[in-house]
Please model this.
Amino acid sequence: MITLKSNREIQSMHEAGKLLAACHREVAKLIKPGISTSAIDRFVETYLKKHGAVPEQIGYNGYQYATCASVNDEICHGYPRKEPLANGDIVTIDFVVNLNGSLADSAWTYAVGDVSEEAKGLMDVTLECLYKGIEQAQIGNRIGDIGHAIQTYAEARGYGVVREFTGHGIGPRIHEEPQIPHFGSPGKGLRLKEGMVITIEPMINVGVWESKMDANGWTARTADGKLSAQYEHTIAITKDGPLILTMQ
Ligand code: MF3
Ligand code: CO
Model:
C-alpha cells in the first residue's frame, strides 16, 4: 500500500531528517583511519537516543545494528565491526531515525584519509546520480523517470548501477511501496503523487552492476570485488517540487 502523507506528517518526517543530517555531520568528523565502524555505530545509537530518537534499524527484520556500514566492495547492509578503517577505504554509513514515530533514512559514503582517484570519481558520480534522481521526483513524473536519469548518467561514465536493491516508500515502516529502482525507462511505471515520501539511494559500482550476498544473508558486495558507493536522501513529493527531508 502507498500511504500519502499530509503536510503535517511531512513536517514531522523533516524533523527526523534534520536530526539524521546533524548526526551524519558528526559522523563525518569521526571518520578517519583507525576508527572502527562499530565505534561509529555506537556513536550514532547514543547520539539518537540523547536527542530523543530511536535507531529504527535495530530489530528491523532481525537486523541488529543502528547503522549499516559498508566498506569498499560492500554495496549495502554491511555489519559494523571492530576492525579499524584504513587509510584509503571508503565507507557508506546508512541509518534510519525514528523521531516521535516519524521516520527518515539517509546514507552517505565517506572517504577515510586519502583515497584513490578511482574512489573519488566513484563518489562524485554517485552523489551526482542522487541529485539527477531527485530532480525527477516531481508530481506527474513516473518512477521510471527517476531510474532512467540515474542509470544514463552512471552508465555513460562507465559505472555499474546496482539492481537488486532499490529506493522505497517510507513511513510508517522503513520499507513501504513503491519500490524506486535506480534504473529504468522514461515515462514508465507509477505516476508520482503529492504526499508520497520515497527514498532515492543509488548504489553505483566502479565495475559490473552484479552483486553477491555474504553468508550472513544481509551484506551485499560487488561481484567483481571493485568499489561501490551510495548516497541516499528521503524525499517528499510536493507541489513545490522535491523536498529533501534529510537535510537541515
Ligand atoms: N537504510 C536502509 C535503506 O536505505 C534500510 C536497511 S534495512 C536494515 O533501505 F534492516 F538493514 F536496517
Ligand atoms: Co538507508
